[in-house]
Write a structure and sequence with these properties.
208 residues, alpha+beta, six-stranded antiparallel sheet, 21% strand, elongated
């Protein structure tokens, strides 16, 4: 009897801690995997947040940069549309009365028409300037027009009429207030020899 009990005692279960060890190893691996996946997801989430922020800024930005370029897509689309329309008109032969006369360069006929309803006729037209900018892919044509005695009100309306053509832009205005012998009536806004610079841009033909 004594020998039998001793034999049973020797056969007692062994290695019961192995299951716990395996469990800890598997659990540790799972923790590492979860941590890696969480890190990757967080990186993607941060990337999505950054992309959303940049996209929102691009779509909703207003104004222009220091070099005059639109900051947002909306303003850029407007500028592109203006550029395309100006280019189409600069080719000449467009539909309508303006297209027949405008041709290439600064049309003196269009400038004359712009001043008719404000009783302003230029007295001198300077030589047209052609300034190609190959790095940006466009050329700028401009010309100065000098007028006689007029008022600031007339000058403002003249510039408005020229801008309303859709093709031209008034990039510079110079004038001197007339002296008291001429400016005798309120609001004393008569000016002498006002000069405006009218211009437009058109794409350069790129060599292939």
């Amino acid at each position: 009897m004594m020998a039998k009990k001793k034999k049973n005692k020797d056969l007692a279960p062994s290695g019961s801690g192995d299951h716990l060890k395996y469990y800890c190893v598997v659990f540790g691996i799972l923790v590492v995997v979860i941590a890696v996946v969480a890190f990757q997801q967080r990186s993607k989430l941060n990337a999505y947040k950054l992309a959303t922020k940049q996209t929102r800024a691009l779509l909703m930005a207003k104004g222009t940069t220091k070099d005059g370029r639109p900051r947002g897509v909306g303003d850029l689309a407007v500028e592109v549309e203006k550029f395309v329309e100006g280019y189409k008109e600069s080719l000449g032969g467009a539909d309508g009365e303006a297209g027949k006369d405008i041709g290439i360069g600064i049309s003196t006929q269009m400038i004359t028409r712009s001043g008719r309803d404000v009783q302003m006729v230029y007295t001198f037209a300077g030589q047209e300037q052609d300034d190609p900018n190959r790095s940006k892919g466009y050329r700028t044509r401009s010309r100065e027009f000098t007028y006689g005695l007029s008022t600031l009100d007339q000058l403002t309306k003249l510039c408005w009429n020229i801008e309303a053509l859709g093709r031209y832009r008034v990039s510079e205005i110079r004038w001197k207030l007339a002296d008291k012998r001429v400016n005798t009536e309120r609001p004393f806004f008569k000016v002498t020899k006002p000069v405006i610079r009218v211009g437009y841009r058109s794409p350069l033909t790129r060599s292939r």
